[in-house]
Structure formats: structure tokens, C-alpha cells
Amino acid sequence: MIYQFDVFVIGSGPGGEGAAMTAAKENKRVAICDDFPLVGGSCTHRGTIPSKALRHASQLLMDADNYQGVNLQTLLKSADSVIDKQVKMRRSFYERNSVDVIDGRATFIDSHTVEVTGSKGFPETYTSESFIIATGTRPHHPEDVDFMHPRIIDSDKLLDMRYTPRSVTIYGAGVIGCEYASIFRGLRIKVNLINTRSQLLSFLDDEIIDALSYHLRENGVLIRHNEEYEKVEADERGVTLYLKSKKEVHSDSLLWVQGRIGNTENMGLEELGIRVNSKGAIVINDKHQTDLPNIYAVGDAIGYPNLASAAYDQGRFAATHLIRGECESQLVEHIPAGIYTIPEISSIGFSEKQLTEKQVPYEVGHAFFKHIARAQIMGRTTGMLKILFHRETLEILGIHCFGYGASEIIHIGQAIMTQKGEGNTLMYFINTTFNYPTMAEAYRVAALNGLNRVNFIN
């Protein structure tokens, strides 16, 4: 039997969900397919949701300074309850909007047909006018590292750990590596963080990078920069990471978080003439169309910016274009970054380094949380809010936040940065009355601090 649809979505993460919901609202017959039996994709089951739940639990442990009877498995169970709630909620979206949910792996037969092999063990055929690929990514595995060994794990395998290591070496100091370094230290696990570059998270503002490095080290994380592995050896006692610098790093476990690759192989894409780059990312145009105009791709499967929030929007944009033939919407120029280390980080817009390279005349306004009444009340005095603005027009050019609630605080600045004309200037924060005491008040403090610098210069 052949099943027919108007729109067939492959992958039920944020990108797939955004696409399916948009198409369903336009009264299209929609199916969404995933080779994982529960909806939500890697974001819900392996990435964003579980890691942030773990991070929150780790933060509470550090705050309480009470570790009695708590281990990694306890924290993992706390993440399970959040995942269950997310799955039930997302499943209800599809049920209410009459979206067919199909369990299995999809492979293209031609530009309008896929075969899906699921738990039944035999393929079923589906045809559709259009397809949207939102298959996400998975951790990259070098061939010379034995990921079958129980002491060598990646960010997916970590969630299934049945023991709590005394020490962990994290290879890869990107966002995931830095977040898990914080989580493990919250459990008082010894952490070696191996960075292949010269500094942590180089896309951030230098002042934020310095603050992150300081606090990770202050919490007991040993950071090694400019290092690359030569080989990995593991036995029942632990793992030894041999570095090209001739250093040897010993630990109970190795967490490998160096790179991710698109889940796009063995889908029949190459046979259809759809280009995929060396990292498994699908090549698209500005409308999210692949080399075949009725097949679209969104989310992490296309690469940058690799954010769940952006993926959902990309899914909406792709669905709108395939239905209406036009879509003026694009991702906004400045997308906020949220990094859930302890303390957390969020930023939007340009960094000081970027503005210096562009030779933009800018100035800086700071608000340190230790001076903010709400932060003092909550005992969250570590951190700051930093505003970068044009020295002559006072236009806001970048906002960087380090500390408690950073990923929430950033959205106030984001809303102002998106305004046109005089609405996007430092004066908004100076002339606006904020609730007191709040963390949002940091915007007014930082704006006044920056304006004082300009007035002093003038």
C-alpha cells in the first residue's frame, strides 16, 4: 500500500516540528517521520533538554553544598521527567493538528517517494508533493577512537551512563564541552578540559571568554589549550589520552565532544543529485530548497547556526515557501547565543574585537551584578551585563551577559536592538523606568555607565 501526503517531514526535532505545524495550519495533509520512536528529536532526547536539566540540577547541588546520596544517575533521572513531559506535549501538537506520526527511517526512492523501515521490519512506501528534511546531527566519531568501550562516551552515550566517574577528561572545549565541564564540577567530579584552540569559545566577546575561563578554573576545571590527541587507550581502570605535545592525561572516563556530523547518510540524497558537504550538511538556497526544488532542508542538517530556536524558524520558513511559493522571512541578523555553563552566558550582536576590526567608533557600558540589588538579594552577584554602542549615534551594537539568568536577560536587549531608527539607542534604557529590584535594572545601570564615558570623553 502507498500512502500519499502533501508534505512529508523527516525528523521531529524543532525544525521538523516548525515545518509540520506550519503546513498543518495551512490545511495540508502532513506526515512527520522519525527513526526514534518518541517525537522531539535529539534536542529533546539527547541534547538541549537533558543537558539543561542536568545543568540546573548541578547548579542546585552547588548552591546547597549538600551532595549526600547524589550521583550522576540521580541527576539523569531528574532529566527523564522533563523529557517525558516534553514528549507528551509535542505528541499532543501532532494529534490536535491531524499530523500523521510515522516511526522509522526514511530513504528516498525518487523525488516524490520515500520508503520507511520501522519497528515492523519491512518498508512502507509514502509519496508526497514536497519533503522537508530535518534530521539533525550526531556526535562525530574518529575511526581510531573506540566508542564501544564503556569508559569512552559522547554526549549521547553520556545519558545512559550507569556509573559516576571520579574524573573525566573532556576532549573538545566548544559549547557542549564547556557546559558539561560545569555540570561535572557541580558533582565534584575532577575535570580535564582539552581545547584544540587557543581560547574558549572564540566567537564570544573577549571579556566574557576571560570570565568563563576564570570561573571554570576557580571551580576546579583544568583547562589545556592548543592540544590535539595522538591516540586514546582504555581499559577497565580508565582512559589515557595521549596528546601530540607528549602529555598524557589519565581519567576514569573520556567524554568526546569534538564536532558533530549531519544525519544525512544512507537517505538516497546523493542518488537524487542533492549535494551534501564533508560534514554531512545539506546544501540549500536562500529558500531552504535543496538541488531538487520540492525537497527542502532545515535545522542542524544544514549546518550553521545549529540552534534549536533557529531550526524551528527555519522549518516555518521552508513550509511557508513550499506552500505559497514565496517567503520573505529569513533568520534575523543577530541571533542570541545561550550557553548554559555555570555561570551561564548569553550574547547578541557584535563583540569588541569585531567592532575594532570594522573600525567602528564604539563605547562600552558595564553593570556588575555585585552592584545590582536583586542579585544581592538572591545571592547571585557573580557576573555582569555589557552593552556596546556607537559613540556618536548611541546605537546599540552588541550585548553580552555573564551570570545568573543571562539567557533570559539578553532578550530585553534583543527586543531593543531589532527596533529601527532612534528606537535602538542607549537612551531607551536610560529613559525607561524598570521595576526595582530586578535583574533587568542592569540595563539602565550599564547604559548610564556607558553614557558617562561618552560625556567624559566629550
CATH class of the largest domain: Alpha Beta
- What CATH calls the topology of the largest domain is FAD/NAD(P)-binding domain
Helicity level: 25-40%
Query: What's the end-to-end separation, in Å?
Result: 77 Å
In the CATH hierarchy, the architecture of the largest domain is: 3-Layer(bba) Sandwich
Query: DSSP strand (E) fraction?
Result: 25-35%
The number of domains is 3
The helix-and-strand class reads alpha/beta
Instruction: Count every helix, treating DSSP H or I runs of 4 or more residues as helices.
Output: 13
- Provide the gyration radius in Å: 24 Å
Q: What is the CATH superfamily of the largest domain?
A: FAD/NAD(P)-binding domain
Describe the structure.
- This protein is an alpha/beta fold.
- The chain folds into three domains: 202 residues, FAD/NAD(P)-binding domain (3-Layer(bba) Sandwich); 107 residues, FAD/NAD(P)-binding domain (3-Layer(bba) Sandwich), CATH 3.50.50; 115 residues, Enolase-like, domain 1 (2-Layer Sandwich).
- The chain contains 13 helices and 22 strands.
- Helix 1 runs parallel beside helix 8, helix 3 packs across helix 4 and helix 3 packs parallel to helix 5.
- It is globular and about 75 Å long.
